[in-house]
Amino acid sequence: MKTKLTQLFTSTFGVAPTQMAFAPGRIEFIGNHTDYNGGLVMGAAVTEGITVAASKREDREIHLICERGSLVVVALDQLEPIDGDASWSNYPVGVTKVLLDSGMSMDCGYNLAVVSNLPIGAGMSSSAAIELATAYALAALFGFDAGKADFARIGRKAENEFVGMPCGILDQGVSAFGQADHLVRIDCATEDFSTTPMPEGTHFWIFNSNKKHALVDSAYADRHKECHDALARLQIRYPDAKTLSEISLEQLEAAKDDLDELLYRRAAHIVGENARVSAVQEALASGDLSAVGAALTASHESSRVNFENSIPELDFLAQTLSKEANVYGARLTGGGFGGAVMAFTSADFSLNQARAVTEAYCEKFGFQATILHTQAGAGAYLF
């Protein structure tokens, strides 16, 4: 991607870039919607992601270009969200605002070019990738010192407050702390980040449903509110609980009559998912990949029934893959409401098997799912 990026940058701005940065997309391994509920989550950075190039300008303007868009020009002294086709620029502009609010000094504007090899709309968090890549490049360009956790929080704040998406720390944390052949575990209550080795011989296969995945326009915000409402009801009985993830399965069952049916199911997903993350961590430590797979499959079923953030296309992919030989488990990855399914497999799972699944999918839905065979890769870096 470096050659393509350099060509885009120089042809647009007429100068060479002075900083380049890469940030990966991510797979949500397990821990669906637990991050903004103060819970546990495990994810993996992938080898695909977003690369940016930057240079300073002589004026106080920000000029932004991506492969599939027109030039966007923003005044550095008037940073406001943009609607329409240029709304992708809200991610780097939002990061700029958060960096300025965090104390970074900018004596001029900048040029920024963006290229990506992440599948579009697959729920692999291109948003976090562009946030982290931009933050790394601008911090280097303007001499701002920050650590991985700081960059993750900068990206999350930009997405929460500037873009308007109430996400947690999962996406940015995994993009920042990714490591080859490792999973990233995040305790979102304490924002503690750690890594766990991937079991040898295991693989990720991503099946993109090619159903539009646009979280800002989806029911994501509704789920966020429903979780908040469920917690408020449960706090009447359990006043010490600060988040849904502090409620145990036993406590939730004891308080079932305190909740209406919808809020109970929403809470059941979060409480159950938090328990599944702990179970997966134990199973990985003991090498019990069957137990890992069972938890992944149970996670998808809870998304389908309790959280209702799946769709028929994702259900078909997850259920079909779970029946395939050499597949430990499969589940939707990311926010849901479209996007992709992740299959966690042995090395013996083949491209022919993957193609058979997509052929069955096309026969049922009338359009193709696309396949990405990937692996856990490094977190964000400058180059």
TrEMBL record:
Residues 90-178 form the GHMP kinase N-terminal domain. One of its GO terms (cellular component) is cytosol. It comes from the Bacteria. It holds the Pfam family GHMP_kinases_N. InterPro entries: Galactokinase, GalKase_N, GHMP_kinase_C_dom, GHMP_kinase_C_sf, GHMP_kinase_N_dom, GHMP_knse_ATP-bd_CS, Mevalonate/galactokinase, Ribosomal_Su5_D2-typ_SF. Residues 281-364 form the GHMP kinase C-terminal domain. GO terms for molecular function: ATP binding; galactokinase activity; metal ion binding. Residues 8-56 form the Galactokinase N-terminal domain. Its EC number is 2.7.1.6. GO terms for biological process: galactose metabolic process. Keywords: ATP-binding, Carbohydrate metabolism, Cytoplasm, Galactose metabolism, Kinase, Magnesium, Metal-binding, Nucleotide-binding, Transferase. Belongs to the GHMP kinase family. GalK subfamily. This is Galactokinase. It comes from Coraliomargarita sinensis. The gene is galK.
